[in-house]
Here is the input.
Amino acid sequence: MNTEKQTGQLIGALLLIAMLLGLWNNFGLNTPIFSGAGWLQNGAQMPLLFTAGALLGLLTSALMLAVAILAWPILRLSSPSLALAYLILSGIVFATTAMEQANFLAMRSLSLQFAKHPELDPAMFELLRSMVGASRQWIHYIDKLIGGGSIFVMCLALYRSNLVPRIIAVCGMLAAPIQMCGISMALFMQDMPSLMLAPIALSLFALSLNLLYRGFAVPGYQARYART
Here is the structure.
């Protein structure tokens, strides 16, 4: 019982750290890169920010994958198929995140070439800017779409296992499709309301705090699935 509780608390800590790092990366660390004239002009002046952002993005995704790995032996007792699906989706998200960060570093390379060759036609660099930037952007949206699916599966498994208060799991199950619909709008080149991303962030925040405080609610859980 203590092992499951401690695992739940560790998962809560990893979730919270991943969320805070993700927010800092997206809305703090990367802000100077995209502000003002844009990343093509700014990148050559701050190449280390690209490196830091890419590594931080990989770390955030690795923490989420670690959550799935830690949860696997516990969730599979009640929902083996959902636990496996959650683990697989988390692995896919890590792979798509790696692709996104590789494209992010390609943006840095283009910015450095832009600064190194001022004699070349700026229109050519603008064309390359739109292509390289779009490549990173579309992979980012696909990554977040699959990530929303992984959160839905995780919350469904938590709901079935009753390891956390079911209201928290239900909120996550409702918030994930809202986020996925918002990302789908962006994929179809429609404006995505930022508010559609708020429910999943709040749900994960509530889940992480609950797990940090209580861990997994395991009374009767082991006996219930002892024969599984």
About this structure: The chain has nine helices and no strands. Residues 122-161 form the longest helix (40 residues).
